[in-house]
Amino acid sequence: MGQLIVGQLLNGAIVGTLYGIIALGVTLTFGITGIVNFALGAFMMLGCYMAWYLTDGVGMPYPVAVVGAVAITSLAGLVADQTLFRFTRNNLVNGLLVSIGLIAVMEGAALLIWTSTPKNMEYVWPGVFMVAGLVVPKMKLLVVALLLAVILATYAALTRTWIGRAAYAYAQNPEAAELMGVRTKLLQSGVVVYSTGLAGLGGALYASLYSIDPTLGAVYILKAVEAAILAGIGSVMGSLFGGVLLGVTEGVGSIYLPIAFRDAYGLVFLVAILLFKPAGLFAGRK
Amino acid sequence: MLEFERVNVHYGKNHVLKDLSVRVGEGEVVSLIGSNAAGKTTTLRTALGLKSSTSGSLRFAGEDITRLATHQRVNRGLVLVPEGRQAFVKFTVIENLLMGAYHRADRDQAQKEIDIVFDMFPRLRERRAQKAGSMSGGEQQMLAIARGLMAKPKCLLLDEPTLGLAPIIVEEIAHTVRRLAAAGMTILLAEQNAAVALACAARAYVLESGNISLQGESDELRKTDAIKSLYLGN
Ligand SMILES: Nc1ncnc2c1ncn2[C@@H]1O[C@H](COP(=O)(O)OP(=O)(O)OP(=O)(O)O)[C@@H](O)[C@H]1O
Ligand SMILES: [Mg+2]
Question: What is the pTM of this model?
Answer without folding.
Answer: 0.90
